[in-house]
Design a protein that fits this description.
The protein is of the alpha/beta class. It is built from twelve helices and nine strands. The chain has helices at residues 19-28, 44-48, 57-61, 74-82, 105-117, 131-136, 147-160, 172-201, 206-216, 220-230, 241-257, 263-280; strands at residues 10-13, 33-36, 52-53, 66-69, 96-99, 121-124, 127-128, 140-144, 163-168. The strands form two sheets. The chain has a six-stranded parallel β-sheet. A three-stranded mixed β-sheet has the order 7-8-9. The radius of gyration is 20 Å and the shape is globular.
């Protein structure tokens, strides 16, 4: 049976740049909402709108039908799941944990096993989109796991990500799909940056270069990056460069697990590390393209 916003309780763990607007849309959809964040002050606007603030992930998950986690990396997700005050300590049988973070495929499958041992369910559901899409409630998501929990969770997920792509039954499939999407985008950013570097160093009219690239990369989000990279507009960050580095590392590791070497991803990793060393930490991840344009 699908989730009913009048009766089904949701807990949301992690109220960062993506998590806070996602949780806001869950609340707007009518689901009773409990939230937890390492910095409690980030929950103020949600609490003012009717959410309940928990003191720990375990407290947030107690009594919840669905728990959504939106956190930085594998370590953070594993900690809120398995820690002494983690969600597995209190989640009731048949409740569903939806992992909205970009994490390694290995962790997705590990979480599925941990939940299965507790008679709870894990769905990998990494989201795709910039913070502006999160604000608008227009994210995309890849979801993988058992079919019945996916259908139960669909109304909750649709509140923040109306475009739901079911990637398969094995949770890692959703995380592989997300890494593939991010690898394609990272490669596009690198190509845009190198194209603009060639245009600039060859004294080509920058307006012509931007027009050509914007036409070639016609997808709105990528088209936006053409302008940002051309104008070196890396503030405010939609996707911070440190997070971009984490995702590139995940891509390289996932490829290594299947005996594949992603040479382009390794080249991008080198540029991102150089960009961070040069003082671009905290900037948008597209700022690594500046390395070719110095």
């Amino acid at each position: 049976m699908a989730a009913d916003s009048n009766t089904q309780k949701v807990a949301f763990i992690g109220l960062g740049r993506m998590g806070e607007p996602m949780a806001t849309h869950v609340l707007k959809a009518g689901f009773p909402l409990t939230v937890w964040n390492r910095t409690p002050q980030k929950a103020d606007s949600l609490v003012a709108s009717g959410a309940t603030l928990a003191k720990s992930p375990a407290e947030a998950a107690a009594g919840a039908d669905f728990v959504i986690s939106s956190l930085m990396d594998d370590e953070a997700v594993l900690a809120i799941a398995t820690g002494r005050k983690g969600i597995l300590a209190s989640l009731r049988p048949f409740a569903i944990h939806i992992g909205a973070s970009t994490v390694s495929p290995k962790l997705a499958d590990k979480l599925e096993r941990l939940h299965r041992n507790r008679k709870t369910h894990y769905l990998a559901g990494p989201v795709l989109g910039r913070p502006t899409a999160a604000d608008a409630g227009q994210l995309m998501t890849f979801v993988a796991g058992d079919a019945a929990p996916i259908e139960r969770a669909r109304p909750v997920i649709a509140s923040y990500a109306p475009t739901i792509i079911v990637a398969g039954q094995q949770p890692q499939a959703a995380n592989v799909a997300k890494l593939l999407a991010n690898f394609t985008l990272a490669s596009a950013l690198d190509l845009i940056g190198q194209s603009l570097a060639l245009a600039e160093k060859s004294k080509l009219d920058p307006r012509l270069a931007i027009q050509m690239l914007s036409g070639f990369f016609g997808i709105p989000a990528v088209k936006e990056y053409v302008t940002r990279i051309a104008e070196r507009d890396f503030d405010p960050p939609g996707f911070e460069i440190a997070v971009g580095l984490k995702d590139i590392e995940l891509m390289i590791a996932a490829a290594h697990d299947v005996n594949l070497k992603l040479t382009n991803a390794e080249a991008i990793r080198t540029k991102i590390r150089a960009a961070i060393r040069s003082g671009l930490r905290g900037k948008d991840w597209s700022s690594f393209t500046n390395i070719d344009r110095r």
